Write a sequence for this structure.
């Protein structure tokens, strides 16, 4: 069976992480959370007192960073040097800072090589925002996963209840602001690749989304046409 590079892009709260992990498990592929790399840059910028607007210092920071994924019993963890920063990067503040630092071409360029090196081995599911458009334009299968804003905000609110509690209205406002930032930035804006398969997960379970994806990954030779998958 041919090993593939599969990309799953989309806005926050669309279910990318859950779906990407489940799909990777289903295929026995590596799961790569590329958004964690930008959160890692944001976290180290905060630790070192670097403004998200200081492009020169961010470039120097990226050149010195040693970000890597390590598989543990609890899942794949992100390390910066010898320190596990997996929990530190999962806060609303890091989400907004990651969106800000990702707008800088120097940061995207620095992380591009890391991501492509991971993809060279194939058999991987890459989750992010520009995987199918910029990082892996020749990916074997590309998905763009989205959902209604209120549904996405509700999902994220539940995720944050224990780690960093926020009011639902605040989560929705932050998400709307990040959507606008990500889709309007000049460097690799958030958008579906021309050949991406659009899936609206608003009314679908994770299992349903996975089943739809599998139809495109291993299509029925008797039904080769590709249909857009949207909520009914």
């Amino acid at each position: 069976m041919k090993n593939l590079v599969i990309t799953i892009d989309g806005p926050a709260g669309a279910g990318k992480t859950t779906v990407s992990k489940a799909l990777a498990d289903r295929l026995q592929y590596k799961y790569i959370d590329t958004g964690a790399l930008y959160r890692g840059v944001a976290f180290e910028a905060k630790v070192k007192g670097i403004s998200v607007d200081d492009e020169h210092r961010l470039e120097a920071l990226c050149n010195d960073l040693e970000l890597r994924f390590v598989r543990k019993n609890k899942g794949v963890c992100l390390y910066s040097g010898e320190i596990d920063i997996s929990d530190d990067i999962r806060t609303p503040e890091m989400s907004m800072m990651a969106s800000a630092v990702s707008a800088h071409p120097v940061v995207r360029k620095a992380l591009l090589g890391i991501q492509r090196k991971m993809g060279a081995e194939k058999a991987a599911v890459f989750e992010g925002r520009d995987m199918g458009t910029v990082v892996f334009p020749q990916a074997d299968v590309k998905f763009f996963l989205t959902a209604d804003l209120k549904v996405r905000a509700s999902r994220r609110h539940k995720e944050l209840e224990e780690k960093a509690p926020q009011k639902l209205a605040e989560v929705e406002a932050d998400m709307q602001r990040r959507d606008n930032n990500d889709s309007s930035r000049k460097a690799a804006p958030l958008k579906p690749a021309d050949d991406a398969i659009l899936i609206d997960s608003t009314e679908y379970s994770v299992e349903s989304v996975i089943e739809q994806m599998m139809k495109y990954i291993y299509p029925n030779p008797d039904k080769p046409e590709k249909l857009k998958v949207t909520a009914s």
